[in-house]
Design a protein that fits this description.
binds adenine; alpha/beta; Rossmann fold; 30% helix
């Protein structure tokens, strides 16, 4: 429990869909809205019982699906100032399709690395290399990964996260494709045998954060297994997930540590 805190935090929370943000905005006080075309960004204060009466500033949005929309929203969030405080840390959270055998709905995957599996600038660059960075995988900062694992594991062990199951770390693949076919899974496993899960935004947000030098965490919850039943399972899952997505987001907001935010 962090009962003392002499710095204020401003945390960005981004998802692709409103269900993935869930009740987050309802839990904030003094919410203001900023409108950028079709993107609404909400900023407010979260009063956590862990931090006496000093609120955390939280800026929240959902971007829409895919790499372009999420990159655009991530950039807007990173530029948001609330009560004169810039963003310290961005968390992208939402659902993903499980590729690794045994992954089930409600398993949590915190990637240790992300790859944009549809980036292919051959023959100028090797497959998957992001030309802007000259690297193919964006690693989660180990300090952030260890912290996130610790706070989630504690909640899971104490059975304080109903519905949520096991926590995994692994490679997440991001691409502008909803994967819903065995043949697509097989292709992905051929090109990236170690891939854990797929989604459509995380690698893009991680790239923006990397380039903008903002600490970043991607957190995914398995909604489907990217197979022929994926769309059905995904839609059913989201209906329930919207009630519980805040429970996961809250863990991070309630357990912030200034050391990895370089404050
Ligand atoms: N997000 C959740 N499920 C997904 C899938 N099967 N493919 C891509 N993104 C997803």
């Amino acid at each position: 429990m962090n009962s003392k805190r002499d710095t204020s935090f401003h945390i960005g929370i981004l998802s692709a869909m409103p269900e993935e943000v869930g009740h987050t905005i309802l839990n904030l006080k003094n919410v203001i809205k900023a409108q950028y075309g079709d993107l609404t960004i909400y900023s407010g204060e979260w009063f956590s019982s862990n931090y006496l009466n000093k609120p955390i500033f939280v800026t929240v949005a959902w971007s829409g699906w895919g790499k372009v929309s999420s990159s655009r929203a991530a950039t807007r969030i990173i530029s948001t100032i609330y009560n004169e405080k810039k963003i310290d840390f961005i968390i992208f959270t939402g659902v993903a399709g499980g590729i690794k055998k045994d992954l089930k709905q409600w398993d949590i995957v915190i990637p240790d690395e992300l790859i944009q599996y549809d980036m292919d600038a051959r023959p100028i660059f090797e497959r998957f290399i992001l030309p802007a960075l000259n690297m193919d995988r964006i690693k989660t900062d180990p300090k952030i990964l260890n912290w996130a694992n610790k706070v989630v594991r504690e909640k899971l062990d104490k059975k304080e996260l109903p519905f949520y199951k096991n926590l995994y770390n692994g490679l997440i693949g991001t691409g502008d494709q909803f994967v819903a076919k065995k043949s697509s899974i097989d292709n992905l496993k051929t090109i990236l045998p170690e891939i854990f899960a797929v989604e459509m935004e995380g690698g893009a947000v991680a790239q923006v954060a990397h380039q903008e030098k903002i600490p970043c965490l991607i957190v995914r919850v398995i909604s489907d297994n990217a197979d022929d039943e994926a769309s059905l399972n995904f839609n059913e899952f989201l209906k329930l997930y919207q009630k519980y997505s805040w429970d996961l987001i809250k863990i991070f907001l309630d357990n912030l540590e200034s050391k990895f935010l370089q404050l």
